[in-house]
Protein: DedA family protein
Organism: Candidatus Mancarchaeum acidiphilum
Amino acid sequence: MPAASSKSDKIRKLPASRTSRIRIESVNSKISKYFYYIATVAIIGIVISALGITNGYFHYFNYKDYYSSEVKVFSPFYYLGYLGIFLIIAFAPPPDYLLVPFYGYLASLNYFNVYLVFIVAVLAMMFLTAIEYFGGRFAGRPLLLKVLLHVGITERDISVADDWISNHGIASIFIATFVPYFKNVTSLAAGTLKMNSLKFFITNAVGFSLRFAILVYIGYEGINVFLPSFDVEFRSILYLIAIASSLILAYAILVKALHNQDKESSAIQG
């Protein structure tokens, strides 16, 4: 008898309409899975475009008028220096998606060198992942889990990260550098699985460098959205961003709602 067909072979044998439906459902399921990340990006796009467009028409805010006040307000961060940047990005509760653009903005006020902010941010995150990696590698798993429960990381989180790394290899480490919280769990899992340390750190360095380059740039240049002239120069782009972000957000909400409805229906039938 012929060997059993693989899942992909079975899908290819289905009618075209059903195959398309399965693929659409698969895409929708992935969108639902990452709903909060998609929704966050879409909302940021809507807010930025709305600020730029409305400020261009009404001129309600021009950050250059407040420059001297900002210098006084943010001066404490200057006295903390680059060591303060390192410690805050590595260990402070707020996510680096907020902290790194903030320090990029301070660099635009000439508090810090923008390139040094980028380097220190990458080193801070590399230091944190190194602690997590070597903790996972050399601490016993039961002891590690007892400690991690105090910071909200459960055995299930580690198991999910284990499966993710086993299925996707080094690519999973690169992807995780762009996902808040998951990068920490993945670093711990990589240590417990004794992943090659050189590959682990090189991949993290590349991933964090790309992400922090974008975040520092957003903080350094993004404040220009509060210049009335910004709307005149980029009005058409802002409208496109607003429309695209609104459509993405609406679609993500719809998919999430349908996904929840399907789960409820399955629970009732079960």
